[in-house]
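Message: Just now I want nothing more than another pair of eyes on a protein record. I am handing you a single protein, as its sequence and its fold in token form. As I understand it, each token names a local backbone shape. Take your time, and here it is.
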Amino acid sequence: MLIFIDWNLLGREDVIEDFLFCLTVVLLLYGNVLKKQFLVDALCFFYVWYFVMETTSYLAVSSNFSSSYMYLLLESNKQELSEFTKAYFSLPIFLFIILSGAIFFIIRKKRLKQSNKYQSAVGILGCTAIVVLLKLTGLIENNAYHNIVRGTYGYITLQNSLKLNTNIKAEDISVKADNEVLVFVLGESTARNRMEIYGYNRKNTPLLNAIKDSLLVYNNVISTDVFTLKALPKMLTSLDVDSKKENHFNIVEVFNAAGYTTYWLSNQRPISYHDNAISKIASRAKMFKFYNHIIDKNTLVLDEILLPDYNNILKKPGKKAIFIRLIGTHFDYNKRYPSTFNKFNANPKHKSKENITISHYDNAVFYNDFILYSILESLEKMNTKSALLYLSDHGENIYDDGTSFFGRSEEVITKSMFEIPFLLWTSNSFTFPKDFEYKPDRVFMADHTYESIGHVFGVMHKSMDASKSIFSKSFKPRQRKVLGTIDFDDYFSVKDE
């Protein structure tokens, strides 16, 4: 690790925890607690594998193995894990795994001599005392196996905690406008600072730029989290960072009760239709379709696959709310666009992994621009009282702020992981609420998107408060807490200084 990573990445607590964890293994072997060789083999294997997880995590993303990674592992399918492995696998990681394998075969045969009759008691009590010490001091938070358990428990808890109230009555909804079609487009991993329409130096959103005068472009919107599973439920339901109640209303059900036919088209896979928190919301739509589910969770499918179904839905009679979830600019970036959109290439003189990755991401944004414009263009041709709202679930770090990695992490956070695009388009005949106000630089956090959609479209459920809407004159600014506790504006203003 001293050879291949920056020593400053390792905190004192991490080193202490590693030493104490090592001591627990030594004590178990010293006490001869594990009589059978296969039990000793298991202990040695899990101990060596612990350092494989820790060290390869540092080598890949400059962070220890945290509970956050369990969200990624549990939420990812085989194809995504394969893509992730290929992107981060390197010679140092390969060499370390080989070295660790050799170490396992060496230590599995090592024994500490029996010196006294109290040796077993010393081993058991000593091991227990260290585990208690790790827990009481909080050092256990640096332990990979603790984080595996904690991450899995947190994942299951999140699934169970999102209890949706499906008992939404028509009398609880106030329809204040006769708007006909809402299209809500959810992007994926698209960072605002990497889009030309937000000032990026590459022309990767030419179509949106061409119609910029007809868009309401919001410049200061952030997501609450860096992982989809945590961020999206807060956008689509009455759940927000300050929620204490368990029963939440979701936007799909609100439009159902208001007399709209709801559709959900997703180019992302469900874990299953009703167990995943986001799919639980989607399943309330009158018609829902998961394209990656249909083709065996193949994340190579491009977003254009949902355009034919979308266009057919637009032609159906009646009022409708269409929710579209894109694969967007989700990693692996070079697989998110067809070869015809390979516009940006790394400078041949500086063809580093960093520059290649940036170019792949910019091409993915370029293709995303085409998809979003195609969706909008079809809607405009219908000549109805309609609106389209586009935002991303979270941003993405692409070697930003001096970092040496791409992706997202809850341990090493950057502004770009949270800063997201937020665009509204409306037809000429669209009816705005009476208290509508366009403030492009309004400081907003996306967990109040639920209220904003209802407010601007004129479909207000009793759980909605117009003062939470980004579109309202009565909007009330608030502290923007990301990851549950961090004041985004304070944290990054101090860091920038």
User: Anything to note?
Assistant: DSSP finds 16 helices and 17 strands in the chain. Residues 7-159 form one domain.
